[in-house]
C-alpha cells in the first residue's frame, strides 16, 4: 500500500498528463503482478464489492476518535468526501503497517464472511496502523467508490510504457468481462489469442462537442451526418452463437435487453456493431423518458417490453466476418454495415441510422433546429475517411448538439459541493415565481467557472437567511439562466417536474429578480416538450 | 449591561465608548492586528501594539494612531484595557478588558504554536472569551511548523534540481514572512512578489530579521529564476504575472490545504498545511486555558463550533461579524485582504 499511496499522492499533486503517466509507470515497474492487476482493475472501474455500508463506517470512526456523530456529519459536509473525513478525524496511527495493495484488498474482501463486530474490529485494527493517505485509500476501497482522476487512457499509456506492449493493443485487452479474482496479470495482458474472452468489446470511440462553426470543418462532401440519437450507447457482439451487449460504461447489459437475444442466431458470428440502444415503435423513436423506465431494471417484465421496446440504431461496424475492421475508413465500414443489416432479417431489432443527404452546411443547421421534435439530441458528424479510433479524440467525430431549453430562475437554497468543490457553495436549488412566491423546481451544480463559484460562495455566506443542516436558504436576489435537455412531469419531485441534465448556463447579473420566469412559463415548456 | 456588546459596527465597550476591530468607521478603535478585516480604514482614532503599528500605518496611511506595549494597561473611564500576544502575526494581540472584576478577552485571530517570528501566544484568564473558529472542525489538525518547513524545503530542493522555479504562496502579511523565515537559503535565492516585499520593508525597518529577498521586477532576467524560489500572494497565481517564471512548480501554504478538494481547486502542484490560525485541538485548548464560561464565536464554522462548545457545558454564542479569517486563501476575489494585495501589486 505504501507504493500505491505514494503513486496516489503523485497523481493527486499534478494536473499535468505527463506527470501522471510518469507516476503510474514508475509504480507499475515497482510492484508485483498481483498489485498491477488490482491497480488496473481499480483504475478501470472494476472495484471490489462494498463490504461495509457507510453508516457503520461513520459509527466506528466516531467511536475510535471520540468525535460525536453529528460533528462528524458536519465535517463531512465541509470536506465533501466521507473516506477523507474519516481519515482526517481519526487519532494519529499507533503502528506503521506495510502490506501490499493486494493484501489489503483481500483483507477487505474477507469482511463479507464476518459479522458486524468482526468487521468493526478488522476496520479499526487497520486504521490503527495506516497514515492519513493510506486510511483514505483504505476507506475508498471499503466504500467501493474509488476514483483518482486518471482516465483509462492514461492508465493504459503508463502500463504500455511499463510493459512495452503497444497501447491500442493493451486498451483492447483491458476491455471486457474480467475481474482480478478470475484472471491473472499474465493472462490478461500477455496471452496471445484475442478470442480468449469472446465477450470482449472494443474500446468506444467518443466524440467531442463541436465548438467551432460547422463551416470550419471544410468540404461537406468529406463528412457523413446523422442524428445524434437520444438513447444509450451500446456495443453488440455476436461470437460463438452468443450475444453480448455492452454499454459505454463498460457494463455488460445483455440481460436487460432481451430484444437483442435473437441476434445470436440472426446474424453471423464474428460481428460487432456500435449503435444506440433506443426505445422505438412504429418506425420512430420514443423519448428518453421511456428508456429510463428500463435502465435501472435487472429483470424485465412483459409489460415493460411492450411499453418500452428497444432497437439497436446501428451506426458503425467494428468486426465483420470475425475480422477487426476498425482501420477501414468510415465509408467502407458503413457499406459493410448496410449490407449486414439489409441481408439478415432481424425483425426490426437492427435499424440503420439514416445518413442525411446534404451539400451545404446550412441544410444541416436547419435539420439540427428540428432535432428535438424527432427525439434526437442534434447531429453527429463523422469524417468519411476516418478509422474507428478509441477513447475521446478530436478531429474525426463531432457531436453538434441542439441548443438546450432554458429558463431564468432564482436561487433559493445553497449547499456545499463535494470533491474538488468541497467547502464551496456549488449545489443550488432554483425556483420560479408563482404569484409573489418562489416555488423550487430544480437543482443545478455545474456550469459556472471556479471564479464564479468563489464569488457566489462569498455571497451565500453573507446572504444566508436560514440554515437547515448543511443547506442554507438565501435571499431571493440572484438570477441564473438554467439550461436543460428535456423536461417531463414527475410525481417523485415535489415540484411535479423533472429536468434532464440541468445546469447553469449564465449568471444573469443583468436581470432583476422580479423578471425571472414563472410557473406558467415552466408549464408551457412542459406542454411543448413534456411528452 | 455586559461590559462588551456586539452591534452593527463591531465589538463595543459602552462604558469606555471604544470599539474593538470595528468594521464600520467609529470614533475610537482598538485594533488586534493589521489584517484588512480587523483594521479598517476610516476610524478617527486607533490604538494598537507598538509592533503592529508600522504595518497598520503603512496600510491605512495618515491616521491618528497611538501604541501600547504588550501588557501595558490603559484605563478609560475606569475600564482597564491591555494587549497580550496572540501569536497570529507580528504585533498581533488579544485585547483584555476589565471593569469591576468582569474580564473579557477579544482574541482577534490567534494561534498557539510559537512560529519564532510572532510574539508567542499567552493564555489570559477571563470570564468572557471572544474567539474565532476559522478551522473549528476536528478535520483540521496541524503538524508542527518544523516538519512543514522541512517538506517545503525538500520540494524547493527537488524543484531546483529539475532546473525549475518554485513559487510558494502565502498572504502578504504574516504567512509570507513565516515562510521566508523557514526557507533554507542554502538551496537558492528568494524572490518576492511586490505586495510581500512592501510588507517586508516595513517589518525590517522595525527591526524584524528576515532573510535576504529580491523583489520581482521587469528588469530581472527571466533566466535568473530557475533553481530559486518566488514567494507570492495567493491572488498572484493565475495572473499574467506568473508567466515570467515559465514551467514553475507552485506550492500553496495554507490551513485549507488539509482538504483534498481545496488542494485540487487551488491548482497548486503542492499543498502545504500551514496556518496562522488554531487547529481544532488548539482552539479547544485555548478556550480551556482561559477558564471562561462564556464564549462568543465570531468567524469560521461559528454555528458548528459554538454548538460543540455548548455540548461541553459552556455558554457559547454564535456571532455574525464581518471578520474573514483565512478566507483570503480560498477566495481569490471579493475579500478584503486579497483586494489589498492585488492593489499593492497593481501599483507597481
TrEMBL record, chain A:
Domain ATP-dependent DNA ligase family profile: 303-434
Coiled-coil boundaries: none
GO molecular function, one term: DNA ligase (ATP) activity
Assigned EC number: 6.5.1.1
Keywords on record: ATP-binding, Cell cycle, Cell division, DNA damage, DNA recombination, DNA repair, DNA replication, Ligase, Magnesium, Metal-binding, Nucleotide-binding
Enzyme class: ligase
Listed GO biological process terms: cell division; DNA recombination; DNA repair; DNA replication
Reactions catalysed according to its record: ATP + (deoxyribonucleotide)n-3'-hydroxyl + 5'-phospho-(deoxyribonucleotide)m = (deoxyribonucleotide)n+m + AMP + diphosphate
NCBIfam families found in the cross-reference section: DNA_lig_bact, PRK09247.1
Protein name: DNA ligase (ATP)
Source organism of the structure: Neolewinella litorea
Automatic annotation (TrEMBL), chain B:
Region (Disordered): 329-348
Keywords: Exonuclease, Hydrolase, Ligase, Nuclease
Cross-referenced InterPro entries: MBL, RibonucZ/Hydroxyglut_hydro, Xnuc_lig_assoc
Entry EC number(s): 3.1.-.-
Molecular functions per Gene Ontology: exonuclease activity; ligase activity; RNA endonuclease activity
Biased composition (Basic and acidic residues): 330-348
Name of the featured protein: Ligase-associated DNA damage response exonuclease
Natural source organism: Neolewinella litorea
